[in-house]
Sequence to fold (228 residues):
Amino acid sequence: MKKTIVLSHPKLAESAVQSFLLEGLNWLDAGVNIIKLDQKLLRSTLSLAEQRELILNSAEVFLQFPLYWYSAPASLAQWQEELFTDKFVHDLQEKNKVQPATLAAVISMADKSADFGAGARIGRTISELLSPFQAFAEKVGFSYRKPFIIEQFNYQTPKQQERTLIEYLMYIADADASFEQRSEWLLAQLTKIEQTANSAILRDYLQQQLDEYRLLDATLGEIKNDRE
Fold:
């Protein structure tokens, strides 16, 4: 079963974060289908029938978009309205009874996560703002995964952006659940990277991350042994 990313952005060609993430997807072993929604056309270049086929045959569907005025771009809402007819919703529900799929959200935003929540500058949590997507997931029989949040990408240093990309790829690859999964994924990426000048920076960064995870895992193990 494949993964499908539904990308909604009113000015995709001008988005530094989306361009960075899309380029990074080339490093994943498994192919990822991408449905790009255009703000002008309000539709992908794929037909609705082709898109339904992709969604129906995906083990995981990612809704990827910037958080504008605490909501998703209009193209995503129109895509949902056009694609998810009563018949297609029924087909998804029946399919998910046998082969449950997952819905996840990848959100980029200009605010800090610390600005959200009771008593903060924005008096709502991110989970509250994204709750319609959780309700949508439950409606069609998807399980709902904790969202991946990218905050203030344009203000991040190059090193921070690299870390964001690695964590994003782990999220897409379902390799972010434990230290062991993260370490195995990082090692696999190091093994497959070609020895080229263009990959040297990424290879060094992956090695650094792997070393950090191993050190942290060993430290946690020592703490656990001391307590026992």
